[in-house]
Specification:
Pfam families: NMT1_3. InterPro entries: TRAP_TAXI. By secondary structure, this protein is α/β, with parallel strands linked by helices. It has two domains: 169 residues, Periplasmic binding protein-like II (D-Maltodextrin-Binding Protein, domain 2, 3-Layer(aba) Sandwich); 138 residues, Periplasmic binding protein-like II (D-Maltodextrin-Binding Protein, domain 2, 3-Layer(aba) Sandwich). It contains eleven helices and ten strands. The strands form two sheets. Strands 1, 2, 3, 4, 7, 8, 9 and 10 form an eight-stranded mixed sheet that branches. Helix 6 packs parallel to helix 7 and helix 9 packs across helix 11. The longest helix has 17 residues. The protein is globular.
């Protein structure tokens, strides 16, 4: 299936006489975002391998969709580990608003990121961000300011050390960077969105993060689900020219406890068999490993997912 056909399927939500099953929406961020591209890749292999009709449904941010997946108004979603754990436990943003029906389907990939600046910028390190314009607010996201705070902490800085420029979400952040309204942003490595940003601004520099034990401790204090990772250059990774220490945390496909077992099994079958095709669409999906889909996290999996992993000999890790 061509990318043109995939995009057409997302935009035109009409019924199809050829459809085998009722369409299932998967919540993503807005079109062109990192997660929307992931949703397109997932929906493509679901259709071609399992004949499952999944259609990305864009929101201003993925976290806005959590209550709608919990209530089964939406069948599936893509979300980071931090937001999922907060929602399912009723912590943080979701205090007194626990989403008890959420269930994990699979760990999809580690989302890997660092500070991105223009290739011709004088900014060479996180410490150089002092006094610079950085995105803040992120009113429609759970993790926006947490990620910026975590990245700043790797250079011994915090929000008080920079000029804060309000943005609504991650897509608005990318737009502000392209427009020149901010000096740095969160560069998601291997994302089509950030490949486009790079083209728009004439190239990016990925800032190498400090990887000392003290830095990792600071990262864990702010964002416990995150870690530091030494990323090697690869042909399919734009703007990673040298070994670069980046920040990473896991991204998941999730659903609710009312989702039929057959849907979950069909989706996992597609993910297991569709890695190569997904990687062609989104470079960062080269980090998707079917054997790592069953993550050891304090949140329940859908029963059909557990049954699938046990049948396939996929261990929780």
């Amino acid at each position: 299936m061509s990318l043109t056909k995939i995009l057409a399927a997302v935009v035109v939500f009409t019924s199809s006489t050829a459809a085998v099953a009722e369409p299932i929406s998967i919540a993503t961020a807005r079109q062109g975002s990192s997660t929307h591209n992931l949703g397109l890749a997932v929906s493509t292999v679901a259709a071609e391998i399992s004949d499952l009709d999944i259609r990305p449904l864009p929101f201003q941010s993925t976290s806005q969709a959590l209550p709608m997946v919990d209530s089964n108004e939406i069948g599936l979603g893509l979300e980071n580990a931090y937001a999922l754990l907060e929602a399912s436990s009723g912590a943080g943003t979701f205090e007194n608003f626990q989403q008890k029906n959420l269930r994990l389907v699979a760990r999809l990939l580690p989302l890997r990121m660092t500070v991105g600046v223009r290739a011709d910028s004088d900014i060479q390190s996180v410490a150089d961000l002092k006094g610079m314009r950085l995105p803040a607010g992120f009113g429609t996201t759970v993790t926006g300011e947490l990620l910026i705070s975590t990245l700043l902490a790797t250079g011994g800085l915090d929000y008080d050390d920079v000029e804060q420029v309000p943005v609504a979400n991650f897509s608005a952040m990318a737009d502000a960077f392209i427009a020149g309204d901010i000096d740095a942003y969160i560069f998601v490595v291997g994302s089509p969105r950030d490949a486009n940003v790079s083209v728009q601004v004439g190239g990016l520099r990925a800032i190498d993060l400090n990887d000392s034990p003290e830095t990792l401790a600071n990262v864990k204090e702010i964002l416990p689900v995150a870690s530091l990772y030494e990323l090697e250059p690869a042909e399919n990774l734009m703007d990673i020219d040298d070994v670069t220490t980046i920040l990473q945390y896991d991204y998941f496909v999730y659903t609710n406890d009312a989702r039929p077992d057959a849907d979950v099994t069909a989706l996992l079958t597609a993910l297991q068999g569709g890695k190569a095709q997904m990687e062609e669409m989104v470079a960062s999906l080269s980090w998707f490993l079917p054997e790592n889909m069953y993550a050891d996290v304090p949140m329940p999996y859908h029963p059909a997912a557990i049954a699938f992993f046990e049948a396939q000999g996929i261990e929780q890790r």
